[in-house]
């Protein structure tokens, strides 16, 4: 593995995490899957703090996919309750650390009470510019790209946009959160090595870090190891190093 060029940033501006392994962590201990999600919430808090301390400006967490709605109803409702509990009890941490909350995904799928809570926190943290926490909820990469295609098609149909004028930037600007920079580093826990429909457009030049550690066991030291791996890599973006 080649070393990072001297002038390249060694700390990723944006880290995105596929938080995988809560269920397996719980099952291996004879616990319910929801207990695994509860322990995973503690990893969220730990990584949130570690990312800020390291200088990461954007942290995106894949919290709930569009496919996750297919899970048993009791698990889905439990996850929504856990999300509500976590947000209410840790909202103060966002304010204390001047961190803006953003939601990525089909928020219309969320229970109204959950969406109302998230919308309030988004509004109350909107002025913060130091750090941003993005929660991907009812999110799917293909769904996002399809939605972007519909927006572009609507503009073409109304005459606002010519098909010849469609560029990569046109697509990027039509995504859910076009102002969020693409992730520099994507981490996946639990030993699986796939994207699972996460940030398919945005990951074109992301670095990937896979670890066998299950998400509930992924804490500050594991996060530091991922950042160290990122710092050791050369990012050429299709060009040659000079």
Describe this protein with a few key phrases.
Undecaprenyl pyrophosphate synthetase, 242 residues, alpha/beta
Could you explain the architecture of this structure?
- The chain has about 240 residues and is an alpha/beta fold.
- It has a single domain (about 15-140, about 185-230), classed as Undecaprenyl pyrophosphate synthetase (3-Layer(aba) Sandwich).
- It is built from seven helices and six strands; from the N terminus they run βααβαβαβααββα.
- The chain has helices spanning about 20-25, 35-55, 75-95, 110-125, 140-155, 170-175, 220-230, and strands at about 15-20, 60-65, 100-105, 130-140, 185-190, 205-210.
- The protein has a six-stranded parallel beta sheet with strand order 3-4-2-1-5-6, with helices on both faces.
- α4 (about 110-125) links the parallel β3 (about 100-105) and β4.
- α2 (about 35-55) packs parallel to α3 (about 75-95) and α3 runs parallel beside α4.
- The longest helix has 24 residues, at about 75-95.
- It starts with 13 loop residues before the first strand and ends in an 11-residue tail after the last helix.
Strand and helix map with partners:
Layout (H helix, E strand, L loop, with lengths): L13 E5 L3 H6 L5 H22 L3 E8 L7 H24 L2 E6 L7 H13 L6 E9 L1 H17 L10 H6 L11 E4 L18 E4 L9 H12 L11
Parallel strand pairs: 1-2, 1-5, 2-4, 3-4, 5-6
Question: What's the SSE pattern?
Answer: EHHEHEHEHHEEH
Note poorly predicted spans. 1-7
Oligomer: single chain
Number of DSSP helices?
7
- CATH class value: Alpha Beta
Largest sheet strand order: 3-4-2-1-5-6
Shape assignment: globular
CATH H level: which superfamily? Decaprenyl diphosphate synthase-like
Q: Structural class of the secondary structure composition?
A: alpha/beta
The helix content is: 40-55%
Beta-strand proportion = 5-15%
